[in-house]
């Protein structure tokens, strides 16, 4: 890499760095103790967009103040953007494996942050968790603490962009690879609604539960989040009842 911008740590806490090659057109915008923002001049697409590199605090109160600062700043700054890095929080219960279960209320602050930004989570391909406590057996905890959020306009520009979780040597975090123009599609196996689910009366309650989540933001964003919640609830419900897709297992409630 030919260029480097650094935010020094305070003691052993924090610290950020962004590096890029000389053939990329990158201009510095702003940095703080938890993010570095640059503008990418993408000559291939002819677009300019903001790249915000985030390292959020492990402290809940500090992290919430960081969310507030980022939301205020983004609302005052025009342009499409990508925000990625270690957010040190979860959006959904299934983004954690092992350890103490996260209560639903504890996820609201990060969900509200994403909602107020009007952001879209690009998802990923690869291993579902990006952090591990490096313990074994019952003491192991894995979480998806790192992700890529984008503005709706940026997603329209780069509708094929995809994220991969890559194994990192010497770190307890996975590396994120954002490919803005991948050769093929990446991501989870697509969700498919199984029409046989409607034969079970419980399916209506499951969809209703998913749709009633608290969310705020643009109308498009609210619909996106409610559909995502319904998909999550249906997957969890069908797995618990053995209503797997593909015809391998199917049991209907007799109630």
Low-confidence stretches: 245-255
Radius of gyration: 20 Å
Which architecture of the largest domain per CATH?
4-Layer Sandwich
* Helix content estimate: 25-40%
What's the assembly state of these chains?
single chain
Tell me the CATH superfamily of the largest domain.
Answer: Endonuclease/exonuclease/phosphatase
- Structural class, by secondary structure, is alpha+beta
The overall number of domains is 2
- % residues in beta strands: 15-25%
**Could you tell me how far the N terminus lies from the C terminus, measured between alpha carbons in angstroms?**
64 Å
Q: What is the CATH topology assignment of the largest domain?
A: Deoxyribonuclease I, Chain A
How would a crystallographer describe the biggest sheet?
A: 6 strands, mixed
Mean pLDDT: 85
> Shape from CA axes?
globular
Succession of helices and strands: EEEEEHEEHEEEEHEEHH
Descriptive tags:
255 residues; alpha+beta; Deoxyribonuclease I, Chain A; 2 domains; 3-stranded antiparallel β-sheet; 5 helices; 13 strands; disordered C terminus
Description:
- By secondary structure, the protein is α+β, with helices and mostly antiparallel strands.
- The chain has 2 domains: about 5-185, 4-Layer Sandwich (Deoxyribonuclease I, Chain A), CATH 3.60.10.10; about 190-245, no CATH class.
- Helix content is about 25%, strand content about 25%.
- It contains 5 helices and 13 strands.
- The chain has helices at about 60-75, 110-115, 150-155, 200-210, 220-240; strands at about 5, 15-20, 25-30, 35-40, 45-55, 80-85, 95, 120, 130, 140-145, 145-150, 160-165, 175-180.
- The strands form 4 sheets. Strands 3-4-5-6-11-8 form a 6-stranded mixed β-sheet.
- The longest helix has 23 residues, at about 220-240.
- Residues about 245-255 have low confidence and may be disordered.
């Amino acid at each position: 890499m030919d260029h480097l911008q650094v935010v020094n740590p305070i003691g052993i806490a924090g610290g950020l760095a962004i590096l890029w090659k000389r053939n990329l057109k990158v201009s510095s915008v702003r940095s703080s103790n938890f993010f570095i923002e640059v503008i990418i001049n993408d000559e291939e697409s002819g677009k300019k967009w903001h790249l915000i590199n985030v390292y959020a605090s492990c402290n809940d109160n500090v992290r919430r103040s960081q969310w507030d600062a980022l939301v205020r700043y983004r609302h005052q700054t025009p342009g499409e953007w990508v925000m990625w890095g270690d957010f040190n929080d979860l959006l959904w219960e299934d983004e954690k494996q092992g350890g103490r279960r996260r209560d639903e209320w504890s996820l609201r602050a990060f969900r509200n942050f994403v909602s107020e930004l009007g952001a879209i989570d690009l998802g990923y391909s690869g291993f579902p968790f990006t952090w591990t406590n490096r313990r074994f057996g019952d003491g192991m905890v894995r979480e998806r603490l790192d992700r890529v959020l984008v503005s709706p306009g940026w997603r329209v520009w780069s509708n094929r962009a995809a994220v991969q979780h890559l194994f990192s040597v010497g770190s307890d975090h996975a590396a994120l690879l954002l490919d803005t123009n991948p050769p093929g599609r990446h991501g989870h196996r697509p969700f498919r609604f199984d029409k046989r689910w409607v034969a079970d009366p419980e399916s209506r309650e499951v969809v209703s539960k998913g749709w009633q989540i608290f969310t705020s933001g643009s109308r498009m964003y609210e619909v996106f989040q409610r559909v995502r919640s319904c998909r999550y609830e249906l997957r969890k419900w069908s797995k618990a009842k053995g209503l797997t897709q593909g015809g391998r297992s199917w049991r209907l409630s007799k109630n």
